[in-house]
Amino acid sequence: MSRLPSRLSWRLSDLKRDIDEAFAALIESPWGLSHSGPTDWPATDLYDMEDAYLLLADLPGVAPEDIELHVDGRQLLLCGRRWSTGFVRHGQGIIVERGCGRFCRHFSLERPVDTDRIQQGDKNGIYWARLPKRSRQESTREETEQND
What we know:
By secondary structure, the chain is an alpha+beta fold. It is 20% helix and 31% strand.
């Protein structure tokens, strides 16, 4: 009989890492493939500025139409898909670090975002999004309405 892990509150990144490790053990390793890339893909930076949050994500090779940004109150979700380049049709990978497939990154913010004023773009393979914060009065009023 198996025991449940003592730490039941998995974070999404922990679950993704566990799935990646299981996939590597079952699929990649028997074929001699090795994936040593980061488990939290894509690499992101999130800055808390005075009036906005700034999100930067390394997404070279990802088309803008394959990137989704969802904001719900103080929850931020960056999802998308990088397709295989198709450059290599035959051959065995010696090192395979550039991930392809679906990704999702979740972030909790301290203050809600004004979704009507979000700006986003791409520069040299770096996706950026400027997420203006709602005023403190709007945030307080919204939280009061939700609690009533």
